[in-house]
Amino acid sequence: MDPEYFQSHNMSWGTLGTVRPFPNFHPEQDAREIRTALQNKDAVTVVRILTNRTNAQRQVIAQTFEEMTQKDLAVGVKKAMSGELEILLLELLMPPVQYEAFRLQQAMVGLGTDEETLLEILCTRSGEKLREISAMYKLLFKKDLEKELRGETSGDFSNLVLALLNKDNFAVGVQKDIESLSASLNGKKADAALWINILTSRDSDHLNKVLDGLELQRGQTVDQTLDKKFTGDVRQGLKVLVQCIQNPGVYLAKRLVKAKTPILQGIMISHAEEDLLCIRAAYLKLTGTSLYTALQVGHCANTP
């Protein structure tokens, strides 16, 4: 395993995740147990091991399994498991950047586009991370992510999505941005291009100051402002972006409340090592029920 993978992994993930490095990690033992479990179709053992290891540790297990058996672990999972459990285990085996690229591809494949998932990933990931995801998308699917997004979207919403994909940080005065956004609201319809430009080209600390200042100046929440001045997909996109700037944990918790299984798994796998503790806290505050309890009774995924 490339040591740079561990270095980048450790630098990428914060300390607010629910999955931490497993102490006394022995990949050979894990690989042997998984091999036996797959032969016996013992899902409990496979789930116990893979969900209690970090993604980096899972990559070592997968490599060790292949060296030990001359077989790909993902292929073994496909043969031994089925249904939603099979999908979950295969997703757990994907490296983080590959998984995000996969989720974007799944959001655009087939009839219709899952715009909410596109927004979730594009709004919650940094510009640097999105550049890595774009490169991985090209490697996996032999297609350019920007061109794919352009083909799946239109109008101001397309402009927003593409700006998010290419987001960057430029230093500008907070008050100047407040005045610019406020001035854009004086007409019957706000200037979407200006909002897109500012909200996708500043860092989150700067934008939180700008949004707080705008709310003080206008006497209403930014969400209320967007409802009044924008329509259609771009309004929804800007609302999601503002929520992610102000509190991404709350946005993701709200998304989990009515999420079906694919969305639920996507969020939890993507954020398990990063900020799932924040999402759990926001979910509890939002619903009065712990996320753990909701999963046990099936409230999140709308399952019986």
From TrEMBL:
<dbReference type="GO" id="GO:0005634">
    <property type="term" value="C:nucleus"/>
</dbReference>
<keyword id="KW-0677">Repeat</keyword>
<dbReference type="Pfam" id="PF00191">
    <property type="entry name" value="Annexin"/>
</dbReference>
<comment type="similarity">
    <text>Belongs to the annexin family.</text>
</comment>
<dbReference type="InterPro" id="IPR001464">
    <property type="entry name" value="Annexin"/>
</dbReference>
<dbReference type="GO" id="GO:0005886">
    <property type="term" value="C:plasma membrane"/>
</dbReference>
<dbReference type="InterPro" id="IPR018502">
    <property type="entry name" value="Annexin_repeat"/>
</dbReference>
<dbReference type="GO" id="GO:0005544">
    <property type="term" value="F:calcium-dependent phospholipid binding"/>
</dbReference>
<dbReference type="InterPro" id="IPR037104">
    <property type="entry name" value="Annexin_sf"/>
</dbReference>
<dbReference type="GO" id="GO:0012506">
    <property type="term" value="C:vesicle membrane"/>
</dbReference>
<keyword id="KW-0041">Annexin</keyword>
<dbReference type="GO" id="GO:0005737">
    <property type="term" value="C:cytoplasm"/>
</dbReference>
<dbReference type="GO" id="GO:0001786">
    <property type="term" value="F:phosphatidylserine binding"/>
</dbReference>
<protein>
    <submittedName>
        <fullName>Annexin A14</fullName>
    </submittedName>
</protein>
<dbReference type="GO" id="GO:0005509">
    <property type="term" value="F:calcium ion binding"/>
</dbReference>
